[in-house]
């Protein structure tokens, strides 16, 4: 019997790849990319909330798409999944469900920040 694996907040394999990519010449590359992602995610979250409040489905869809792409690049899998769902809901005009997803996204971004902070402290 296969037990489903919990969805990771951060994909540690992606973080390892980012660290490897930085190599000796840029050992802090993963940290820098995660910090940039978190700053951008906070701004995009505000944009998503504003677009939702104004009923701007296209803006909501674009912001979700952009955040989905950047979250994929840093291994923020839960954020990536929620953004994909949010993008779909915005495309289909499901504003009520989109509002729920934006709140879920805020929690997922906070989880990335907390998880990455714990990983850095443990290193």
In total, the number of strands is 0
> What is the count of distinct domains?
1
Low-confidence stretches: none
Largest sheet: none
- Say what the CATH topology is: Four Helix Bundle (Hemerythrin (Met), subunit A)
The appropriate CATH architecture is: Up-down Bundle
Helix content: over 70%
Find the CATH superfamily: HPT domain
Q: C-alpha Rg, in Å? A: 15 Å
Number of helices: 5
Run of helices and strands: HHHHH
Oligomer: single chain
Helix-and-strand structural type: mainly alpha
The percentage of residues in β strands lies in: under 5%
- Cα-to-Cα separation, first versus last residue: 35 Å
Mean pLDDT: 91
Q: CATH class, please? A: Mainly Alpha
Q: In one word, what is the shape? A: globular
Can you walk through the features of this model?
This protein has 123 residues and is mostly helical. It has one domain (34-122): Four Helix Bundle (Hemerythrin (Met), subunit A) (Up-down Bundle), CATH 1.20.120. It is built from 5 helices and no strands. The chain has helices spanning 12-22, 29-54, 57-74, 77-91, 95-122. It starts with 11 loop residues before the first helix and ends with a helix. The mean pLDDT is 91.
């Amino acid at each position: 019997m296969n037990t489903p694996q919990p969805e990771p907040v951060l994909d540690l394999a992606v973080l390892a790849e980012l660290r490897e990519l930085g190599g000796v010449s840029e050992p802090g590359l993963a940290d820098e990319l995660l910090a940039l992602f978190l700053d951008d995610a906070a701004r995009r979250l505000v944009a998503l909330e504003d677009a939702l409040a104004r009923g701007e489905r296209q803006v909501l869809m674009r912001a979700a798409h952009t955040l989905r792409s950047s979250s994929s690049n840093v291994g923020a899998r839960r954020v990536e999944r929620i953004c994909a769902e949010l993008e779909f809901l915005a495309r289909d005009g499901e504003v009520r469900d989109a509002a729920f997803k934006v709140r879920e996204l805020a929690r997922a971004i906070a989880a990335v920040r907390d998880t990455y902070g714990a990983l850095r402290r443990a290193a």
